[in-house]
Amino acid sequence: MTGSPWRGRAPLLLASASATRRALIESAGLPVETRAAGIDERALEAEGTRLAPADLAQALAVAKCASVARAAPERVVVGADQVLDLDGSVLHKPADPAAAHAHLAWLQGRTHALHSAVAVAVGGSVVDRFVATARLTMRPLDEAGITAYLAAAGPAVATSVGAYQLEGLGIHLFADVEGDHSTILGLPLLPLLACLRARGLLTF
Predict the structure, then answer these.
(1) Cα–Cα distances in angstroms (integers) from residue 180 to residues 22, 32, 39, 57, 58, in the given order
(2) Residue 132 backbone class (left: φ over 0; alpha: ψ -120 to 50; beta: rest)
(3) What is each CA distance from 79 to 46, 104, 155, in whole angstroms?
(4) pTM score > 0.90 for this model?
(5) For this structure, is 81 an active site residue?
(6) Fewer CB near the last or first residue (10 Å), C or N of the chain?
(7) In the structure, how many helices (H) and strands (E) does the chain have?
(8) Does residue 7 fall inside a structural domain?
(9) Full DSSP string of 92-161
(10) How many domains does the chain fold into?
(11) 3-class secondary structure per residue, 104-117
């Protein structure tokens, strides 16, 4: 990649099929390849039911990273996960329009946290991990407003926790947002780049 600060011998390996996370890494000028971790996230979550939401996000990111790193020990691997925390309760991607409607009904008029966790593996082992948190306050919404939003957003609501995409129509739902944009999208770039820089993997 022309002008890239990346010093690794091979592109960064992202333990995720997320197009959004890949685009974030590419936006920072880093070459990246993706490989799905192939882990059962809900089973891992069930095992960690006593974990706080931020710790759960971290555990899932580490599990993804470690799974891919074991199969590709020669690569620098990044694993990431995001958990939506509403007063200590975790919300997942809605399974259907009814679930999306229910999620928005719970979130409207309230502040929730998005915990975005990252793990980095070098030489087949996880060497760094961190969590960044953003806080989002959804404006009050009535039934008609929720229904209108879901109709306008379409199937995309099922691809994100909370049934919204802040980078799209979801921005209309919010009164206040506190936190880095990349954290909200699920991959905190600033701490990730700091981690890679500290390990001599970036030129500047």
Answers:
(1) 17, 22, 28, 17, 18
(2) beta
(3) 19, 28, 26
(4) yes
(5) yes
(6) C
(7) 7, 7
(8) no
(9) ---SSHHHHHHHHHHHTTSEEEEEEEEEEEETTEEEEEEEEEEEEEEPP--HHHHHHHHHHHGGGGGGSG
(10) 1
(11) HHHHCCCEEEEEEE
Distance of alpha carbon 60 from alpha carbon 13, whole angstroms: 17
Which of 32-35's residues contact partners 24+ apart within 8 Å by CB, and which partners? 35/68, 35/71, 35/72
Q: Is residue 161 part of a domain?
A: yes
Assign 128 a pLDDT band (cuts: 50, 70, 90): very high
In the set 40, 81, 85, 96, the catalytic residue is 81
**In angstroms, rounded to a whole number, what is the distance separating the alpha carbons of residues 55 and 97?**
29
* Confidence band of 47 (pLDDT split at 50, 70, 90): confident
Q: Quick one: CA dihedral 98, 142, 161, 23, positive or negative?
A: positive
How large is the average pLDDT for residues 160-187? 95
In a domain, 170, yes or no: yes
- Can you say whether the dihedral through the CA atoms of 19, 157, 186, 63 is positive or negative? negative
What's the CATH code of the domain at 39? 3.90.950.10
| 53: three-class secondary structure by DSSP | helix
- For residue 131, tell me if it sits in a domain: yes
